[in-house]
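S.,

Sequence below, as promised.
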Amino acid sequence: MNSPSHHKAAINIYWALFPVIATVGMLAYNVGVYGDNAVGGSNQFILLMGGAVSALVGFRHHVTYHSMITHVSDNLKSTTGSILILLMVGALSGSWLVSGIIPAMIYYGLKLLNPAIFLPAALIVCSVVSLATGSSWSTSATVGIALVGIGKAVGIPQAMVAGAVISGAYFGDKLSPMSDTTNLAPAMAGTDLFTHVRYMTITTVPSYIVTMIAFIIMSFTLHPHGSADTGVIMSAIGQSFHITPLLFLVPGLVIFMIVKKTQPLIALLAGTLLGGAFALVFQPHVLAQVAGVEKLDFVSAYKGIMNALTVKTSIVTGDTALNDLFSSKGMGGMLDTIWLIICAMVFGGVMEAIGALHKLSSSLLKMATSVFGLFASTVASCLAVNLTASDQYLAIVVPGKMFAEPFRDKGLAPENLSRTLEDSGTVTSALIPWNTCGAYQSGVLGVGTLDYLPYAVFNYVSPFITLLFAALNIKIKKLAGK
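The prediction came back faster than expected:
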């Protein structure tokens, strides 16, 4: 819903920019203070403060409080589906953990490792783990650390291994329906989760192919020695879970439903319920551990499954690193992202009500006269927020709200925007030393951000691929009737 035209005409570009600059400045300071804990609540409050600054600008331009609240309400209503999907994604992650589906993906992925093809194999393993868990951070902190250690043991430079780990981790994070950024981007752009994921494969698959070729070429320049010993990790997984290829029936069915364009909530609910059923069949001992009992009965089985779906669940294995990977926060773990979306909608709603978003978007359209110019402006904005506000979530939220209207005005479907936000906002965050993602990856893997940067091929190829597709007008979906 747009605000009345006289409000849009009344505000000039400087007043429209003022709340954005003030908000980004406050966010940058806040991330500097809180680091990677900023998304736990302080960033959300800063977004509300940004909304308050926008409201003051609105009052100066005679926009009523009622008009602002109405726009906020409309904004929040538009995210209802995204919030419900986020909750179901949290439940799915817990269900797939206790059923052994996620451990099975990791187990079979580790079987791929071989010193002669170590870098491509590390890329694939991290891709599989990140797709399964929806978390680049968890992937790096567990399998990533192990791979860097194994690579060092067989004589492969740590920076190269770290680049392969991060490339795979962000590929999986970007495409996994269980990733918070993969849910956040379509919520900001105004499309649905599975449409976003399907459309994102158009640029992500070519980026991944380029990355794979790069690591295969790098492998020819190396002379590894010894063997990639993953026996300890695989043994710990095998002792803690009953691993069988039958577990892949559940993700196979969910993928089939997605391909058949089943509604996201229905597909995710089916995957969650089937995961619970498979946990009863294949992992009763895991459910007993989650429920805190020696012997499983109906009540404890119910309690174990419900705990996995809704709250934090940790599976204790024989490997301390795996204990971090085999944990899920269930639906409760999605509340920080939901909170972030709600506060972003408040900021965006007030900005829309005072005419600031319309003024900014019309100004951007004047500068970005072509479709390519609009895509390039979006990529540049995501990079700018990653550099200044130092947070990948904000690199999706702020440009997402700013560019939603310009994309509509150009007759472009919202999945163009959501894809571009992920192609440039999510992946580049790990390349910036002072960004929370860059600092985290460097700290966890023990390799400097600037050292692994040349080898994090997927992360810097992705923005170029999205711009190339825009320049050549490849798979740029138009709005119906445009």
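The chain has a mean pLDDT of 86.

Coffee later?
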